[in-house]
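job 3f2a | input accepted
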Amino acid sequence: MSVQSALLNAPIASTILRMAAPNILAQFITVLTFVAEAWYVGQLGSIALAGLALAFPMMMLSMMLSAGAFGGAMTGAVAQQLGAGNRVGAENLALHAVLLGLCMAALSSLFFLAFGGVIYSSLGGLGPVLEKALSYSDILFYGVFTMWLANSLAAIVRAAGHMFVASICLIAGSIVQVISAAILIFGWGPFPSMGIGGAAAAVTIGYFLSSMLLFYYLSVKCPELHLKILGVSIKLSPIVKILKVAALSSVNVLLTVLSVIAVTGFMARQGTDVLAGYGIGARLEFLLIPLIFGFGAASTVMVGVHFGAGQIKRGHTVGWIGAFYAAGLTGVIGCLTAVFPGIWAESFTEVQAVQEVCRSYLQVVGPFYAFFGLGLCFYFASQGAGRVLWPVLSVVVRFAIVVGGGFILISLETTTPDNFFLLIGIGMLAQAIFTAVPIQMGAWTRGLDAQKHS
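job 3f2a | predicted structure (454 res):
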């Protein structure tokens, strides 16, 4: 029995857990990797942490675009072909997906290398803080193609149902990243100290290793499809097929990151300590995204396979179960950090003012993390269905709440950072509502012949 046939007949709840487990492990290692990176940079002082607070969202933007928006669209498209029993179509899409990923890497590299200074200075980065942000950003975007390649290849491996293989390859890269970051940030043996730039260099090194391992598996070992470089004609239609979902999905990612960037700009105007404290707290929100992706990637594959096979009602159930799992995981983390915020805040800095801002962020926003998990997992599942309009609209609502409310708050003399933090939580709640309700009311199935596909 093929992996796809097993997915169509196995119990949904246990299958999602089984598929999500290796993803969650890999993403948990990713979280620990970036926690280690922040700790390393924290040893360089508050200015370096503030610079990282400005540049880190751009790294996460690239990660979310390559793994989430484009990677999810790639997974959904290839999984639908495999679910329909079309191996040739799946292999054709796989090659075009990789080429699309490399093209996007080139575009993102050119954009941030050209406009990084303008972006970070507009967010309030000045003097030494701006210098640190650019030290991280420039090195990262010179090598960002390794991230896009690894995440594109991992998306294809997941579409074939081999979550464990994708996870092992990414974990190997994360381990190399942690070791490389320590060596390059502080210097060791023949390697000079690169400071904050060493953290960015380590990111590219880790993803390079992952991409090589994934490429080998898809070219030689994968039984469901082989990534063929030669003998395949390059056409526009497969790229357009992926772009239809990826472009709309990118709006979701861009607005999610822009919401954080906007608040980062608001915080920068309240001082370096406030910016650094917010950056540490918001980093946890960013690091929840890879954990949600564990359930989200499993949901993308399973929903895609079911939609490709015409089992729409069962695919709808898959999406809800995956979303509830993600909400449960993020809800537990949010409640724990709200009750014990010092565990996170004190792990990165000894500056009391920075710690206090971070504690306030976690106490206010933490209880809303369950809604964040629910809405974001539905976004990933919607990529499997090929219908991401409502998840994108929900992020537009969240963005309007956070940014519009933020501009109102900065005009008030009595505004405190806690006011901005509450606004962030309300935005998460709105995103969950505007995603889940339309899906329940038929956003995935509207226009489909329910009798035929149920």
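job 3f2a | Residues 3-445 form one domain.
job 3f2a | closed
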